[in-house]
Design brief:
With about 140 residues, this protein is of the alpha+beta class. The protein has a single domain (about 5-130), classed as HIT family, subunit A. It is about 30% helix and about 15% strand. The radius of gyration is 14 Å and the shape is globular.
C-alpha cells in the first residue's frame, strides 16, 4: 500500500507543492510547526532515512538547503529548522521550517487546523523565493 506521501506525490491527495524534480518533492505540511513548514520527500518510498541510497540522501539535503534558503528569505526567521524524525509516516521526509527558538522544535505545538489562505500564501512566498534564487523546478498543478 502506498504511503500518504506517495498518494500526495501522485495527485491522489492534495498538496501545496513548492518543489518537484525527478527524485523528490517539497510540499507544505498540513500540520505546520510554523507557516512555511515544508516537507522534502523522496519519490522513492524508503521508511528509514539511514536506508536511503547515498546519492538520494545527498540530493534531499541539497534540495532542503535550497528550500531552507527560500524559507529564510520569505519569512526572515532567526533560524531555519531541519529535522528528520519520521515516526508518523513510514516514508522518509525532512522537515524544513522557519523558527525563532528551540521551543518551536516541539511537534506537540503543531497547528492542527491551519488557515488555507495563509497556507496558500506561504507556498506562494516560498515558490517566489525559490525562483529568485534561480530554481526552476517543475511544480505540480495545485487543486
Amino acid at each position: 500500500m502506498s504511503s500518504v506521501f506517495t498518494r500526495i506525490i501522485e495527485g491522489e491527495l492534495p498538496g501545496r507543492f513548492v518543489w518537484a524534480d525527478e527524485q523528490c518533492v517539497g510540499f507544505l505540511s498540513i500540520q505546520p510547526l510554523a507557516q512555511g513548514h515544508v516537507l522534502v520527500v523522496p519519490r522513492q518510498e524508503v521508511d528509514a532515512w539511514v536506508d536511503l541510497p547515498v546519492a538520494l540522501a545527498q540530493h534531499l539535503m541539497t534540495v532542503s538547503r535550497s528550500i531552507g534558503r527560500a524559507v529564510d528569505a520569505a519569512f526572515q526567521p532567526k533560524r531555519v529548522g531541519l529535522m528528520i524524525q519520521g515516526f508518523e509516516v513510514p516514508h522518509t521526509h525532512l522537515h524544513v521550517w522557519p523558527t525563532n527558538s528551540i521551543e518551536e522544535f516541539d511537534f506537540a505545538n503543531v497547528d492542527q487546523d491551519p488557515d488555507p489562505a495563509v497556507m496558500e500564501e506561504s507556498a506562494r512566498r516560498i515558490r517566489e523565493a525559490l525562483r529568485a534564487q534561480g530554481h526552476q523546478a517543475e511544480v505540480p498543478q495545485q487543486d
